[in-house]
User: Which sequence fits this backbone?
């Protein structure tokens, strides 16, 4: 009998659950109007591009990041109007902060709860860290199911409960009364609540000042939607005692000198980016009004720089848009509640007009 066993390979050293996962998908956008990733469609003026280039060219790239990183923390605290008694830490985008939170809370039996459909990285970071993830479906109108969320917190006693404010991909803000009940329930079982305000520049409300009244609530933001998606700067604010502990897990040089200087430059020209956000909000309202006039199209209220729509056939509409040079996100397979839904990023007036025309022809 042949008792020989299969020789081990380097791949055998990689966890089987990772080998069975799908990587985060990024669509090829070459040659297309890119309206799939909620980016700010506006670039810096030539004058500001030149000024930023001169600053970046003068940096000491031969040195590790130093004091300017703390300067960025101070500038972000002022920009965000950080409440007294709170602190903030920096991440290489919000994605890194989500991973660090999972790592920090990885104790036996720990789990994470979040509404679904929601940002995919909440579940992915939990599973990569070996934590259980419990998704709680939204209502058919994409509102928080308060009783179901409270039941999940009671049953699973999660270390972290995520609340996106507004949510991705549904783009809506949820009822503050329901959120307050979730925060109270998480506090009773000693859990954290993380308010994810990635789309804050386009939102009508923020939880920043209300966060100060809780010892177990953290708040994440990113400069990606502010207008610096390519720079990768996220930050998390919360009670100093919590931030101090989670910050211990941050790699010592996770923010490059180039990224930090770009962010500082942007905050010094905050009014430019505020005007861009105002234009995006105005375009969002025009886009939503136009979408409501298309036959067979259903839209929902948006407090972000994206609009969720339901069409008769999402794949047909997506393919038709792409064939006409416009790239959006087909989210219809993400969750049963998103059946035949597309997520449309709000672009410039010209981009939105192209998208509307392409969508109408594709329906």
Assistant:
């Amino acid at each position: 009998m042949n008792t020989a066993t299969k020789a081990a390979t380097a791949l055998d050293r990689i966890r089987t659950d990772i080998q069975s996962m799908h990587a985060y998908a990024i669509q090829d956008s070459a040659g297309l109007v890119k309206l799939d990733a909620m980016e700010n469609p506006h670039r810096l003026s030539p004058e500001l591009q030149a000024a930023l280039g001169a600053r970046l060219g003068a940096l000491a790239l031969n040195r590790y990041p130093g004091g300017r990183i703390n300067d960025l923390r101070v500038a972000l605290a002022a920009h965000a109007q950080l409440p007294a008694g709170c602190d903030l830490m920096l991440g290489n985008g919000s994605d890194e902060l989500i991973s660090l939170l999972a790592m920090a809370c990885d104790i036996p039996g720990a789990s994470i709860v979040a509404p679904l459909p929601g940002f995919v990285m909440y579940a992915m970071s939990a599973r990569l860290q070996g934590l259980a993830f419990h998704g709680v479906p939204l209502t058919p109108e994409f509102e928080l199911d308060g009783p179901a969320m409270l039941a999940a917190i009671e049953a699973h006693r999660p270390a972290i409960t995520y609340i996106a404010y507004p949510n991705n991909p549904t783009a809506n803000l949820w009822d503050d009364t329901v959120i307050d009940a979730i925060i109270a329930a998480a506090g009773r079982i000693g859990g954290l609540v993380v308010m994810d305000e990635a789309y804050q520049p386009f939102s009508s409300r923020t939880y920043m000042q209300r966060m100060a009244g809780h010892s177990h609530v953290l708040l994440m933001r990113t400069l990606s939607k502010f207008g610096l998606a390519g720079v990768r700067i996220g930050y998390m604010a919360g009670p100093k005692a919590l931030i101090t502990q989670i910050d211990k897990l941050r790699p010592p040089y996770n923010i490059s000198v180039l990224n930090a200087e770009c962010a500082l430059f942007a905050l010094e020209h905050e009014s430019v980016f505020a005007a861009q956000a105002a234009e995006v909000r105005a375009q969002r309202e025009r886009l939503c009004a136009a979408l409501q006039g298309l036959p067979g199209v259903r839209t929902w209220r948006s407090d972000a720089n994206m609009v969720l729509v339901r069409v008769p056939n999402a794949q047909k509409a997506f393919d038709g848009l792409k064939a006409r040079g416009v790239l959006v996100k087909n989210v219809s397979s993400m969750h049963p509640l998103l059946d035949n839904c597309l997520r449309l990023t709000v672009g410039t007036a010209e981009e939105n007009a192209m998208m509307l025309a392409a969508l109408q022809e594709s329906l």
In short: Residues 58-268 form a domain with the Aspartate Aminotransferase; domain 2 fold (CATH 3.40.640.10). Residues 172 and 301 are 6 Å apart (CA to CA). The longest helix spans residues 270-292.
